[in-house]
User: Which sequence fits this backbone?
């Protein structure tokens, strides 16, 4: 296998040209066979088509291939990886022109579809009409729009039209939950994840894939607390706040779900949203289950929907309600769950126009309340003469409530740590 038949392709070439970090490098090999790759020491890992791992670097090397659509969905392809398949034929099956470039071993840039020009212009443009044959590409372009938003990229009008047609024609309905979640998870991890969801909304796909989120757009909120008014806009502002804080994907997904219940508020009660927490919890869990997200991600989404306003109003809670929240989060055993809730709630109060720098003193108070509850000596209570069975649990709970009540009675003692007064205008949702 000669080096002049091996090319660096795709995202590695694209990101090198725009100065974006990319640790994943993919290669295409032209004019060879699976047998020759194996003999050269490469390890086969591909299922539908031959992909091999380099024996030293572990990087992926794929045989040049051509594809032909044979059935609906993204599994309906016949793949040809004969040695006669050219590099240009391989590049022509890719989604965007900026991903259809290659670099030869001598450094020569191979760009048969104008990817370099689109890269300089900041345009995400499809390579050919074959783009519409794979519904995953709709999600991938939305994800690229989010990932490259800091570089000023936008989707070409004709590509956006194709994406809209893929939605209206029903091609998007062939997507399976695992693929939707895989692309969503990667989009959530970008610096501007809101762009992913705005893009899907522009092409009609948000209502099909994320109806709980789509339903929030046009739902009003009290302008006193939400200058942005629209609940959908607020939700995506919150999401971007979690990204700016570099919160993990679990928190970002929970932020996306935290206000789903507002879409269920009767029109006569709007712009107020009393009870949206209870209404939102099953919606958050339903989306998570439909996408088959990991259990910890699903649990945090439901937790955020149900309890976020309790954390906002923490200093006004009764001790038993504060303990209910901590127990619902399993925070006494897993204090990191409270930290996740704090991250989501801090993003919630900052995801409002003109309030991006708000402090969140409730965080420090909730931490102290948790520490106080954790300090209760459960072993000593269990050893109390005359206490047995459920009475032990009741006594432990009472002691924890007493400890939390003491913290809530004197929140002013925490001002120096919290960065401001405990009670703020953000007590309201």
Assistant:
């Amino acid at each position: 296998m000669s080096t002049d038949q091996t090319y660096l392709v795709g995202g590695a070439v694209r990101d090198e040209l725009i100065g974006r970090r990319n640790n994943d490098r993919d290669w295409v090999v032209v004019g060879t066979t699976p047998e020759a790759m194996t003999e050269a020491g490469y390890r086969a890992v591909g299922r539908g088509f031959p992909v091999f791992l380099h024996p030293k670097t572990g990087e992926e090397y794929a045989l040049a291939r051509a594809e032909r659509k044979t059935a609906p969905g993204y599994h309906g392809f016949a793949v040809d990886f004969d040695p006669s398949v050219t590099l240009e034929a391989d590049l022509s099956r890719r989604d965007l022109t900026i991903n259809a470039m290659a670099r030869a071993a001598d450094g020569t840039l191979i760009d048969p579809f104008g990817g370099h020009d689109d890269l300089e212009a900041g345009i995400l443009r499809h390579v050919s009409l074959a783009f519409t044959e794979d519904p995953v590409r709709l999600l991938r372009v939305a994800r690229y729009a989010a990932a490259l938003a800091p570089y000023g990229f936008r989707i070409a009008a004709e590509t956006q039209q194709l994406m809209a047609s893929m939605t209206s024609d029903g091609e998007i309905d062939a997507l399976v939950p695992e693929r939707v979640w895989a692309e969503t998870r990667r989009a959530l991890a970008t610096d501007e994840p809101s762009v992913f969801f705005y893009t899907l909304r522009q092409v009609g796909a948000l209502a099909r894939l994320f109806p709980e989120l789509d339903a929030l757009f046009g739902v009003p909120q009290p302008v006193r607390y939400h200058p942005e008014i629209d609940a959908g806009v607020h939700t995506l502002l919150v999401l971007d706040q979690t990204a700016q804080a570099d919160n993990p994907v679990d928190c970002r997904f929970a932020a996306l779900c935290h206000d789903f219940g507002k879409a269920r508020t009767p029109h006569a009660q709007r712009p107020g949203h009393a009870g949206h927490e209870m209404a939102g919890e099953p919606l958050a869990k339903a989306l998570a289950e439909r996408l088959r997200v990991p259990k910890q991600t699903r649990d945090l989404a439901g937790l955020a929907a149900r309890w976020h306003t309790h954390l906002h109003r923490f200093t006004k809670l009764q001790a038993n309600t504060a303990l209910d929240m901590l127990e619902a989060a399993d925070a006494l055993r897993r204090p990191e769950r409270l930290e996740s809730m704090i991250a989501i709630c801090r993003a919630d109060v900052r995801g409002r126009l003109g309030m991006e720098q708000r402090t969140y003193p409730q965080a420090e108070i909730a931490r102290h309340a948790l520490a106080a509850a954790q300090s209760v000596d459960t072993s000593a209570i269990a050893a109390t003469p005359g206490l047995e069975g459920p009475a032990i649990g009741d006594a432990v709970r009472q002691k924890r409530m007493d400890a939390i009540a003491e913290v809530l009675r004197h929140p002013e003692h925490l001002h120096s740590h919290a960065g401001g007064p405990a009670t703020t205008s953000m007590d309201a949702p």
